[in-house]
Amino acid sequence: MAHHSDRPMIQSAEMEKLMQELELGATRRFPEGKLDPTDKGEIKIGITHQDGKVVLAFGTPVMWTGFTPDQAEEIAAMLREHAIRAREQIVAMKVSG
Question: Is residue 45 part of a domain?
């Protein structure tokens, strides 16, 4: 299973700077229209890795998300890339630990 929180993650200064630069969260735009009446519009998400875990950051509390097939494929590729890097972190922690 996965970790989760409804509060911002405590991060390194470098990670915090990156998250601010990405301006994660709701944009209040609807470039793909509304999926249903509860749709709050476009959201910018970040995918990264930290301490051997892959992290998805939404910048705001989120109940659900919907993606186009192209967006889903892009997210899948990013998840795979960060999974590789997170695994490398785990190996490095075991070697140095």
Answer: yes
Token reading at 25:
């969260």
Domain that holds residue 41: 13-96
pLDDT tens over the chain, length 97 residues: 778 887 777 766 766 777 778 888 899 999 999 999 999 999 999 898 888 999 898 888 899 999 999 999 999 999 999 999 999 999 998 888 6
Considering its fold, how many domains does the chain have in total?
1
Q: How far apart are CA 94 and CA 96, in angstroms?
A: 6
- pTM summary value: 0.82
Across 38-74, b (16+ Cβ under 10 Å) vs e yields eeeeebebbebbbeeebbbbebeeeeeeeeeeeeeee
